[in-house]
Amino acid sequence: MKCSKLILISFLSLLQVSAMSAEVDQFTRSDEFLADSSALLNTNANKSISQAIKLANSEGKGCREEVLYDELKVYFANHTKGKLVIDLIENPAYSKRHIEIKDSIFQDWTIWDGVGLGFTLISSNGVTMSDIIRVGEQEVGVDKFEHMFGQGFNYFKKNYLKGKGEIAAVKKGIFGEKFLLGGQKIGNGVFSYGDLSANFNGMRFWNHVLQKHDDVLGADRNLGPYVSCVNDKWVKAKEVDFKNYIDESMNESINCSKYPSNNTLQKLKNRLKIMGVTCPMNQQKLDDLQVKYRQMAKWIINMDGPGEVKYFREFKDK
Fold first, then answer.
1. Could you list the residue range(s) of the whole structural domain that residue 204 is in?
2. 273, containing H or E segment
3. Helix-helix angle 166-179:193-210, to 10 degrees
4. Is residue 314 part of a domain?
5. What is the residue range of the signal peptide feature (predicted)?
6. Into how many domains does the chain fold?
7. pLDDT in tens, 105-141
8. What is the pLDDT of residues 262-282, one digit of tens each?
9. Is the pTM of the predicted complex or chain greater than 0.85?
């Protein structure tokens, strides 16, 4: 019976591989120097926007927003489709910190903690560890960019294009993180608040593209528009700078994750104890995030530290 259960879990997990993103360890070797990649990232991102504008205009249909978004999503999407994210993963010109599972805070994971990290057949096929880069003053997992562009657009669509509001958008993202993108044992066994923040900031980025609405955190946070319509053609209005989107909320050593069982949680805590660190590694930075994100903080900032995931009513009493 146990063998059959293992086979079923493995099969379901293999079906999930394309949807799941890698996990990140921002505790191990966190004092190791990383060169700032923001100039290269911003250059490639702005070239991507220019190319998307060119292709959208080539269709000769005027300023159709759906055409522009489709062309932008050729570059700004997840790790399987987005050219910018694929370049981030593969381009050696970016200074990266790579940590193998066997050397990471997840080294004690078994298949019963999270199949994506604990089962060799899956972990060796790409659902493993995200590299880390520096963007300005912040270190961030490359996985956060696929969340920003992929899930971020889904948030943007739900909130703005469908008019359902930001709370409906973040609730849908929380459901996805818990049940589809790694937050349970058939996934990686990590419910990442850092991923939720990346999704949310991705929604902000997509809103800023045309800046038809004030930023969800207030008009003082408006950064766009990056693209405008002039004489029935799309033109670039300003450059994007991703230093404006990356902050400690995407750093999982500050904005701590939760785990699918108490046993898995204790493995994480024991590993951090061996390393001589805690989560959050800086309480003041966490407190500052709660102020920055205002009314949305309860949905993306974990003020409670590492814990066990509640699959229902997680945010009810916050």
1. 2-308
2. helix 262-275
3. 140
4. no
5. 1-21
6. 1
7. 999 998 887 776 755 444 444 457 899 999 999 999 9
8. 999 999 999 999 999 999 999
9. yes
